[in-house]
Q: What sequence folds into this?
């Protein structure tokens, strides 16, 4: 029996794992962001995938749509948090709600910034799908590829 040597390994992250790790939606290997989610520097999104050279900003103003995703994430978090505060403390003091929600908006803003773009790229961009060919160790990169 002949054993074929496989020199081009493919990466096997599931779509959800890749999204959680903020990887490129096409190859699931390159990072979307240049630095960590929480830190003293603001988050820097890369222009292109370092692995498959996918241009992340699909068209001018592409990330405006992520504001709507971010808004939806914020609403979901605030509603969840408000219900949790009510269930856990039973209080109806509006200042407690306002204080906790205000602090959580700041605490969650890096998360919302990052994952609104991830959700936009993974599930709200037509024609952008996982490509196993691009996930190989040495993908062929055309220089003018979009
Ligand atoms: Zn990529």
A:
């Amino acid at each position: 029996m002949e054993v074929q040597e496989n020199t081009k390994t493919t990466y096997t992250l599931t779509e959800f794992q890749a999204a959680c790790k903020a990887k490129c939606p096409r190859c699931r290997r390159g990072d979307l962001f240049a630095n960590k989610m929480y830190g003293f520097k603001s988050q820097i999104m890369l222009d292109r995938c370092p692995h498959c050279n996918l241009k992340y900003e699909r068209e001018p103003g592409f990330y405006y749509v992520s504001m709507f995703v971010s808004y939806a994430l914020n609403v979901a978090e605030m509603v969840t948090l408000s219900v949790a505060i009510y269930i856990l403390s039973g209080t109806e003091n509006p200042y407690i709600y306002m204080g906790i929600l205000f602090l959580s908006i700041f605490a969650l803003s890096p998360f919302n910034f990052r994952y609104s773009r991830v959700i936009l790229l993974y599930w709200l961009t037509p024609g952008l799908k996982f490509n196993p060919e691009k996930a190989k160790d040495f993908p062929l990169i055309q220089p003018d590829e979009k």
About this structure: The pocket of zinc ion is lined by residues 24, 26-27, 29-30, 49, 51-52, 54, 134 (CB under 6 Å). The chain has one domain: 15-123.
